[in-house]
Design goal:
Number of strands: 7
Strand order of the largest sheet: 6-5-4-7
Structural class: alpha+beta
Number of helices: 4
Distance between the termini: 9 Å
Oligomer: single chain
């Protein structure tokens, strides 16, 4: 069973350690202690918490929310035929290669709100070193 220190849970949630401690105090997360006496959160409990509290901004287009990332256009590289569009959607940076014509038709500019729609045929999973 995976147990995460409060600091690791906070980093994964994108919040401060104080926020995780408040979630524990409010009963939103259960905590215990490890062999060294550090407060830890059960990985399964943290996964449940993330699922229950995850939400994405609504872009009004419907469809599967897990495949749509609403964010800000942070960079554009446009040549004659193709363009690279970077969208920062919360903690996620999504990069797309689309036609230059599409960028012009959408009138995309850095700072615009845009939705990155992901359709993947392959997803790879890796585990970070140092978090267990």
């Amino acid at each position: 069973m995976t147990h995460l220190r409060v600091s690791d849970a906070a980093r994964l949630l994108g919040v401060s350690t104080d926020t995780v401690r408040r979630h524990i105090a409010a009963g939103l997360l259960e905590a215990g202690t490890d062999d060294a006496g550090h407060r830890v959160v059960d990985g399964v409990d943290l996964a449940r918490f993330v699922r229950e509290h995850a939400h994405a901004p609504d872009d009004g287009a419907g469809g599967s929310a897990r495949n749509r990332f609403v964010g800000l256009v942070t960079a554009l590289k446009v040549d004659e035929v193709m363009a690279q569009v970077e969208v920062q959607a919360g903690p996620h940076r999504v990069v797309s290669l689309i036609s230059a014509e599409a960028v012009h038709e959408l009138d995309l500019k850095v700072g615009d709100v845009a939705t990155a729609v992901v359709k993947a045929t392959s997803v790879m999973i890796d585990t970070p070193k140092g978090i267990r």
